[in-house]
Amino acid sequence: MSDTDMKNLVAELGKIVGPKNVLDRVEGRKKIRGDQSWLTYVHAHYGKPLSIQDAVATPHTTEEVSQIVKLANKLKVPVTPFGGGSGVQGAANATRGGIMLNLREMTKVRHLDMKSLTITVEPGYIVSEFEAWLNKQGLCFTHYPASAEWASVGGCLAARGSGVLSTKYGNIQDHVLACEVVLPTGEIVQLPQVPKHAAGPELTQLLIGSEGILGVITACTIKLRNLPAKRTFRAFSFPTLSQGIEAGRQIMVTGLRPAVMRFYDKDAAEHSLERAVQAGLKGPTMVLMFDGDHPSLVDFEANVANELCVKNGGKDLGSKVGEVWWEKRYVFYHPPYAPELPQIWCTMDVVADFEHIENVYNKVTHAMKHAVDPKWGLTLKTHFSHWYDWGSMIYPRWGIPKGPDDLNEAVKLHDQVIHAATMAALEAGAVINDHHGVGLRLAPYMEKQFGPAGMKMMRSIKKALDPNNVMCPGKMAMESSDRPY
Q: Which of 40, 205, 274, 477 could form a disulfide with 281 if both were Cys (CB 3.0 to 4.6 A apart)?
């Protein structure tokens, strides 16, 4: 976009949201640099930012969002919604310029229903702030992502996120009842307030995980819970990974629902979890937490789960490990635990059913360990952090202490590990991602996941809703399977 076109765009946006709520490309790129993925950080470090928005507009109402999107269609310029910027896949980068739609000021609570325990809230509310507001009223969101202090409610929906309590309360799609959305052509749609009933296709779920390509979520109605009357913790060490997985499987398929069930492999237990809890951990370790409104029921479920762990060879480590982990559960995302440049890092979270999950672990971890020359010193720590009544997922966190000095070579090394892990996951029967979204990193693998016919279906939906291709063009392999960075 030329300087003249950019100034005209800024002026037109100013008419909608007010001049003080619009930034040009220079100030806009300073204010919003993209998300928290390694790809975003490393490209910015080398002066080649992935997010190249020509303007940042900050709306305060759904009508303003609608007018901005209509303007984008008129001018044929891209729109990239932006929430808290906590994503780790590169999705929230305006890779083709245009308008960055900053939703951070849309934070109103529109309605709190204390009988139904539901709330209608706008997308810019930061999760930790939202949770604190709810807690003052004896309520909780039950969606506790590791990124809670940065993630917005809308961003959680857009990326189909998950939180540490997902094993009991579900991923974000299980919290959402309805959405208000501005379609890519600017129309405002309020979807039905009661979800998943026989009134045609479930359109709300079509939006969850679409990462902005199908419209802008401007409000959502979500389920709440009372603050739990009791939480109880326990930890177990297991002689083998297989025994721990089997204990977790038996817990899930028999109807027990721990709020937390995190199972760390040997490396993750001894070199990651141990750093936080300092309990002398050795070997694969599981942390369990049960919670609820009825203390006797919490105790009963916990006792049955504990018996299953012992039955499968688990050694009871007591409650302290779990209690300390709960208090420190977010420290892993801050120094000295969180990685920083010049390191290369990423998390590959892939999900499979119980029939395949152990083989997925074996194949993916092997592929990652052998993806690059040993001289790079790749480290790998894997845990199973989210469980379902049909399966589980692995959360391998890998890092290279110092990559190549050249940007292209560093990205190439990063991509080698991603490619090896993703292909191994697919070949072993997994889905390429559990809860971090697609973004730039996994877009090249969408067709391998869905097949040509599946991608044709998704591209047809995108084309029908967004005929001018203004919403996040180039994202989620809607145009090509080439790497978009």
A: 274
